[in-house]
Amino acid sequence: MARKFAKPFYNSKAWKNCQKAYKAYRLGICERCGSPEGTEVHHKIMLNEHNINDASITLNFDNLELLCQTCHAKHHNRKHGFCRDDVCFNEFGDLVKKPERQSTQGI
Questions:
Q1: pLDDT at 105 over 90
Q2: What is the DSSP string of the chain?
Q3: Binning pLDDT at 50, 70 and 90, where does residue 103 land?
Q4: What residues are paired with 87 via a beta bridge?
Q5: What is each CA distance from 11 to 5, 27, 78, 93, 99, in whole angstroms?
Q6: What angle (nearest 5°) sits at the alpha carbon of residue 94, between those of residues 93 and 100?
Q7: Scanning 30, 45, 79, 91, which has its CA 20 to 30 A from the CA of 22?
Q8: Please, are residues 63 and 54 in contact by the beta-carbon 8 Å criterion?
């Protein structure tokens, strides 16, 4: 979940445009595992109260990484020493239950 000081930034038009552009730039491919389901634009340098208004940190492609939901969850849970495959982060940074995939077998 986004911390209180960061919520205005993550809801800003500048961030939403940057996210969209970065996903297109990386062709939707997770930069860690190569999955074609890269959906999470992750900041390499964690945002804090001191850098949240610094566009060279918050909106700079050099500080971004496109991750699939699994890699993003693994990254954030690594510091806590656990990981679950049944949850993921949504577009707002909230932890939610993963949607069930529909089988395409037999089609």
A1: no
A2: ---GGGHHHHTSHHHHHHHHHHHHHTTT--TTT--S---EEEESSPP-TTTTT-HHHHS-GGGEEEE-HHHHHHHHHHTTT---SSEEE-TTS-EEEPPPPPP-TT-
A3: very low
A4: 97
A5: 11, 23, 26, 11, 23
A6: 110
A7: 79
A8: no
pTM over 0.85: no
CB atoms within 10 A of CB 41: 20
* pLDDT tens profile 37-51: 999 999 999 899 999
Q: Which tens digits make up the pLDDT trace of 5-17?
A: 889 999 999 999 9
Which structure tokens are listed for 67? Answer: 């991750």
